[in-house]
Amino acid sequence: MVDNNTLNLGEFLDEVRAWVAGPGEEWAERIEDTGTVPDELVTELRERGWLSLAAPQELGGAGMSFSDYLQVLEAISKSHASIRMLVHVNNGTWRAMAPYASPELRDEVLIPAVKADKRVAFTLTEHDRGSGADIGTTVRREGDEYVMNGEKHLITFGVKADYLLITARLEGTSGKDGLVSFTMPNHLPGAEVIDDSETMGVRGTDHATLRFEETRFPARYRLGAEGQGLEIALGGFLTPSRVGVAMSCVGLAERAQELAIEYANERVTFGKPLAKRQAIQFMLSENYARLAAAKALVMQAARAYEVGAPDAGELSSAAKLTAVDMLTFVTDNALQVHGGRGYWKKNPIERVYRDARAQRFEEGTNEIQKQVISRGVLSGTVSTEGGQW
Ligand SMILES: Cc1cc2nc3c(=O)[nH]c(=O)nc-3n(C[C@H](O)[C@H](O)[C@H](O)COP(=O)(O)OP(=O)(O)OC[C@H]3O[C@@H](n4cnc5c(N)ncnc54)[C@H](O)[C@@H]3O)c2cc1C
Known about the structure:
Blueprint: H1 9-21, H2 23-34, H3 39-48, H4 66-76, H5 81-90, H6 93-97, H7 103-114, E1 120-123, E2 138-142, E3 145-156, E4 163-170, E5 179-185, E6 191-195, E7 207-218, E8 222-223, H8 229-266, E9 268-269, E10 272-273, H9 278-306, H10 312-337, H11 348-358, H12 366-379
Helix pairs in contact: 1-4, 4-8, 8-9, 8-10, 8-11, 9-10, 10-11, 10-12
The protein binds flavin-adenine dinucleotide (FAD).
């Protein structure tokens, strides 16, 4: 386990980096070969304490600051995307639950989730609706219960999760005031869990479509009050989570750049290593510059979140937008440096390239990030100076 009071961050980061380069690569191969994330891997990550880094100690976490945790996530993100996903999601969902959970829910769901004894899936996206407040899944209150109808899809850990951190609409309402969030048990009677895990990258992670038909559950699973659903799903989870995804982009881009440099030094064409060609040098230089710029913005967004700055939401979206564009550019260049061989599965850049593509959807596309930013920019709540140092 990790205890932030006694932790030496530098030594811990060295331990994580060594694990990623050694055992992490062996796990990655096993995940790719079998198409599943072995339970022993989850147990190992839990026992190391890496799934409980960011939550405060009173909830059973290590109590790491957000900025320190992001450095760990950067190192982990050089690993297989399914390993990064376990660390990122398990270290994130508590943020949405903690301010709103009743004492009962804290004991039943929140603390076991922080300790990674129970897994929680963030359940927002719907097949026939748009992002955010456009939610069609409904609930109605009947005595001490809610009754849910509707469908969610693309839900990471939706098959294996014990609980769903889910947002629905009170029947007959429209707009954000009708939204309500829950941490309800998964696999309830009346809820169908359809395994939908065959993805391009992030192989091995389970994903699900969840169908609810008159699904009943006790009202005590509600988080906060009716009407607070969007605040819980977006403010509590997505703002820090977008910064986390942005840092994951940085870590994965660093891995792509390492592989490109290694290959450029090894591969000889027309009597010279690729690294001696200006065209290749310029690709690596541009990768470096964009990586450094994105990382600086990610850390700025992290600080804004930590101090509760008024533009933390816009900066978080700006960081995600910038970092994901950088990742697209860097991984494409890195694959190009590898030539045709990079397209083959036996070459590590192939997996990095596939895994990178998922990041453009996670926690919202660039179009959605731009919507978030433009609301702040046009209303004047965000300074044109782009945040404070
Ligand atoms: C690997 C992976 C894991 C995921 N895990 C989860 C999860 O755990 N939980 C969860 O809830 N969701 C999850 N998602 C879903 C993800 O959050 C969505 O895919 C993403 O937010 C985009 O929404 P959508 O797929 O509904 O796209 P759509 O809304 O159908 O959008 C399609 C395209 O149109 C654009 N677009 C849509 N609306 C607008 C608009 N108003 N203006 C301009 N352009 C627009 C989009 O940017 C996109 O390019 C996951 C997705 C992936 C790929």
